[in-house]
Design a protein that fits this description.
Glucose Permease (Domain IIA), 5 helices, mainly beta, nine-stranded antiparallel sheet, nine-stranded mixed sheet
């Protein structure tokens, strides 16, 4: 950088400073207003389809506070619009950077005179004027405008610092000190299965948890969460300054697993070309489903920003080590096998407990942390063999599993007044039989006896419905299984099921709710629009609730039929059918999806989508428009509503 000995500059007495020569102190930047030193929005905060490119400074609901030139320079651009930034001023600083002031109520007199002259020349209010360096020089501390609320929003000052290449950087990096001793506030965290082979707490949808507050800056997830496959963490949080009620975005996020930093990012810079990435950095689906705004603690496969460490696709994802590696991960004497070392090297987590910690920080070093534990292990189905002895006591003779699991523990519960109460389980046999005693010859599709001989002690005489949950050698829990004392049950009736369809990026989550007790899990077959069929594996989540998943790659055509076979408690079988419509839209091709009457259709082009979309348009006969509205067409419902599009789609409507 050149010294300024031969350049005559007029410096303000408010805070004068020379350009720093090599080895000198860094240049001093004035705070841009005398309104306050409180923020209402932070750098890179979320806005719809874009990042917030600067900071917002509180003006107490008023207009007219002074706005200062933060460094010497000149007026480079003046913009006046009834929308967006409203009255905005762009200063080219002596450092080569650009300072932006937006939503002003007025400019200084010399700037306003040029604006008014240009407005008269154009004959309109809107102005976008670029000036040469010598036209309007400014000194550091000079009043260049006044805070306002023009454009969009309540009264405040929007302030940016951009590089010479017009790329925003965090204004707080310019040495500003603000009154802030408050640690960020954490609202919730989410754990989301990221593909068709993943699960969280036995289910295939996101789990949202509110952490317990321990003390200022410290939060805890009170219970461990069981996961399997590829699971992504996200957090809902915000920051506050001292003596201010306004909440705003945080500066940095870090994810540690087993005290190893797995993922991190912070907001120091921004390119306007990266604005669409804000929806990929946040969890778009959770937002659309009204769960709140969550920031991902992993890198989405389509996120092109390079602020993340490590900067690779799906960095930060909790990946389970392959089940095929499970026998070699840890031997029975506790030693790690080669697969455990390989799993750690590639960021995978072997079965068992793993502690995680999320650190959320503001720019001034105030940190909050959330701690919790995940148990890596896939849920598995069990079949308890229950009998009654001569004393009328229930005996759990054995637990069968189709997953070659080494069952270490069985918990039993009975239903009382809509609540499950635990029953003491007393082992009758103390030596369990392991798979290796069978010589390893059992097929994976045959039940394997894992443990046997438990007495259910002291359940109430009137208890008629029991629940069993097993745990394997890694403390992973099974799906619950239920036993009903048949002699106490009323005459079974024909089962009735409600089917709910929940679409995710590459799989369909099926949820079935029964109005009556069923003898076992319904058997479901999917008939896509083609000759073959697919068996849908269903699991019991609760007494009358079942879930399963269908990879979307198995869907073809537009109509898809489910055949559901179920049995009541007497063993009588009933069959029902359910039909749903979804049309596959390829990610990189032209495509159209039509409503049943042909009067509405969506047109997609190669840049419309990030990934294939499974779309449906239905005529909504339940929607009642306001009386004063004259409806000239059908009312249509387009699904899904929670999938992020890259460029969007064209809606075509024909009406009389």
């Amino acid at each position: 950088m050149k010294a300024l000995g031969k350049i005559g500059l007029c410096f303000s007495l408010v805070a004068s400073s020379l350009l720093a020569a090599p080895g000198d102190d860094p240049p001093v930047y004035l705070w841009p207003t005398d309104a306050s030193k409180h923020l209402t929005s932070a750098f890179c905060e979320y806005r719809a389809r874009r990042y917030h490119a600067g900071i917002d400074i509180k003006t107490w609901g008023k207009v007219g506070y002074n706005v200062f030139a933060v460094r010497p320079g000149y007026v480079w651009r003046i913009s006046v619009s009834p929308f967006g930034y409203g009255k905005a001023l762009y200063l080219k600083l002596d450092t080569g950077e650009i300072a932006v002031y937006a939503h002003l109520s007025a400019f200084s007199k010399k700037i306003a005179a040029i604006v008014e002259k240009e407005q008269k020349r154009l004959g309109r209010y809107r102005v976008n004027l670029f000036l040469k360096p010598g036209v309007l020089p400014v000194t550091q501390g000079e009043v260049v405008g006044y805070t306002g609320q023009t454009g969009i929003g309540a009264p405040h000052l929007h302030f940016e610092i951009r590089t010479a290449r017009n790329e925003p950087i965090n204004p707080l990096s310019k040495g500003y000190r603000l009154p802030d001793r408050v640690s960020p506030i954490v609202r919730k965290i989410s754990l989301s299965p990221l593909d068709a082979e993943s699960e969280v707490e036995h289910d295939f949808r996101p789990l949202i948890l509110a952490p317990s507050w321990v003390r200022a800056g410290t939060y805890r997830i009170d219970r461990p969460v069981q996961i399997w496959g590829n699971v992504g963490l996200a957090i809902s949080c915000y920051d506050k300054g001292s003596n201010s009620a306004n909440g705003f975005g945080v500066y940095s996020l870090k994810l540690f697993v087993d005290d190893v930093l797995r993922f991190s990012y912070r907001y120091d810079r921004l390119s306007f070309l990266e604005n669409p990435m804000v929806e990929l950095e946040r969890d778009y689906r959770l937002s659309r489903r009204h769960f709140g705004r969550f920031q991902k603690l992993y890198k989405d496969r389509f996120n092109a920003r390079n602020i993340y460490q490590p900067d690779r696709t799906w960095a930060g994802v909790m990946r389970s080590a392959s089940l095929d590696a499970q026998p070699t991960i840890r031997s029975r004497d506790g030693r790690e096998g080669p697969r455990a070392q390989e799993a750690f090297q590639f960021g995978s987590l072997f079965p068992g407990p793993h502690d995680f910690r999320i650190e959320v920080a503001d720019y001034f070093g105030n940190v909050s942390e959330v701690t919790g534990t995940v148990y890596v292990g896939g849920a598995f189905d069990i079949q308890p063999l229950v009998t009654e002895n001569e004393n009328g006591q229930l005996v759990l003779q054995n637990v069968l599993t189709y997953d070659l699991k080494d069952v270490q523990q069985v918990d039993a519960f009975y239903l009382s007044r809509a609540r499950w109460r635990q029953v003491e389980v007393q082992p009758l046999l103390v030596e369990p039989r392991f798979l290796e005693e069978k010589g390893g010859e059992a097929e994976s599709d045959e039940p394997v006896e894992s443990t046997a001989g438990f007495l259910l002690r002291s359940p109430p005489a009137g208890a008629r419905i029991f629940k069993f949950v097993a745990r394997d050698q890694f403390n992973a829990r099974s799906y619950p299984s239920f036993y009903v004392r048949m002699k106490d049950v009323e005459n079974p009736v024909q089962p009735q099921l409600e089917v709910h369809y929940d679409f995710y990026d590459d799989y369909l989550r099926l949820e079935m709710t029964s109005k009556t007790l069923l003898l076992d899990v319904p058997k479901v077959v999917l008939y896509p629009d083609r000759p073959d069929f697919q068996i849908v594996e269903m699991h019991r989540l609760a007494l009358k609730k079942y879930v399963g998943r269908v990879p979307l790659s198995q869907l073809s055509g537009d109509e898809h039929l489910l055949k559901i076979a179920m049995r009541n408690l007497n063993g009588e079988e009933f069959v029902d059918f359910a039909l749903f419509r979804r049309t596959r839209v390829p990610a990189h091709q032209d495509a159209r999806v039509f409503a049943p009457d042909g009067n509405l259709w969506l047109k997609f082009w190669p840049g419309s989508l990030y990934r294939p979309l499974y779309c449906a348009i239905t005529i909504d006969s339940t929607e009642s428009p306001p009386r004063q509205v004259r409806v000239v067409s059908n009312i249509y419902k387009v699904e899904p509503r929670d999938v992020l599009l890259r460029q969007g789609a064209l809606v075509n409507l024909v009406y009389p």
